[in-house]
Every structure is written in structure tokens, then in C-alpha cells.
Amino acid sequence: MGKIFYIMGKSASGKDSIYRMLLQKKELNLKRIIPYTTRPARNGEEQGREYYFVDEERYRELREEGKLIESRAYETVHGVWIYFTADDGQIDLKRSNFLAIGTLESYQKMRDYFGSESICPIYVEVEEGERLMRALLRERQQECPKYAEMCRRFLADEEDFSKEKIQKAGIRRRFVNDDSKICLAEIESYIKDMLY
After folding, report:
1. Are the beta carbons of 105 and 176 closer than 8 angstroms?
2. Which residue of 12, 65, 119, 186 could cross-link 135, Cys pair, CB 3.0 to 4.6 Å?
3. Are the CB atoms for 71 and 22 separated by under 8 Å?
4. Contact, 73 vs 80, CB < 8 A?
5. Please, which residues have CB within 8 angstroms of residue 129's CB and are 6 or more apart in sequence?
6. Strand spans (E) along 88-145
7. Are 4 and 98 a contacting pair, CB within 8 Å?
8. What does the CA dihedral 57, 62, 63, 64 come to, rounded to 10 degrees?
9. 153: part of which helix (H) or strand (E)?
10. Which one-letter DSSP state was computed for residue 39?
């Protein structure tokens, strides 16, 4: 039976970069799980790569078909944005191991759906001041920076990833992303240990 390696962490912790680098590691042979969102794509994002960008009607269709594994709605300064994972045929644990990315809440719902023996948490963290600087640099690169939304996300992460919630979710190991090469090597070693 395959496993799902689930990357999570606060915004601007570097989890997206780690996710991309792990997918490039041919020896790991991890298939990606592409989540869905109703938010607009950021500069550089592509349909079907980071997310499936859909409208709320498509979200409702998948929900009515009973295909939602997990979903989260966020009240942003631009309205409600929904993020979700669907049982749309892309996840077959009899054939492959997978890599996914999301929140602590989505990890817990995925674990409940697939079973704790099938999902392995990868929690990435960065010192808060460094994380704030990374978030600001990333937002400045956008065609139309949304600083208010960046600040909302940064503050919301304090609640969403509180120590109590991390502990309650059973996250025992954390990967500190001060040096991306070292962090990536530690995560790669963890994945190999879990697979072999």
C-alpha cells in the first residue's frame, strides 16, 4: 500500500519550494496530489500545476457528487476563497506514493479519509521574522501586491498552526527550513525511511 507524504507549514515557510524539489527527485518517484481552489492564480502559477483553479459552481458540483475529501473556506479581504481536495481519481494508493501540500486542518482530514497508516506528515517551519520577510518579498513580486491579504494570512497562521493544534494533530517531527539544502536532505531521508 502506498503512502501520502503531506507537507504543511505556515505561509512563506518554504513548503512550496520543498514540494517542487521533492517532486524532481526521480528516485523518490512521488506523484503529486493537485488540490483545488476558487482563488485567482498568482503570477507564475499554472492551471493543474499548483492547483486546479475553479469557480464555486465546480466546487458545489464535486461536493454534491460526494467527491470532497476535505475543504476549507477563508474569509479574505477579496471575499471567500475555498481550498479543497477531491477524490477525482488522481489518488491510487495501490499503485503509487504521493506528495501533497496543505494546512494542518487539511492534513487531519486527509488522515481521517485515508487512515493514519497511509499519511506521513512533513511539518516545515521557519523563524517568524524570517518568514515575514519572505512573505513580503514574495508579495512584492506580484503584479498587484495584496499586502492586506498577506498580513491576514500571516496572522491567521498563528492560530491555525498553534503549538496546541500541532500537538493535537500528532505532529512529532518538525523540519526547520533555515537552510533549504539541509532541510530538503532531512526530508528526503525521512521519506526514504518511511518507504523502505
Report:
1. no
2. 12
3. no
4. yes
5. none
6. 97-102, 119-125
7. yes
8. 90
9. helix 147-160
10. S
Amino acid in the structure at residue 56: E
Which residue, 85, 103, 107, 119, is CA-closest to 159?
Answer: 103
Give CA angle at 119 (101, 102), nearest 5°: 15
Question: Residue 107 is which amino acid?
Answer: Y
Length of the chain: 196
Distance CA 115, CA 152 (A): 32
Tell me which amino acid residue 20 is: R
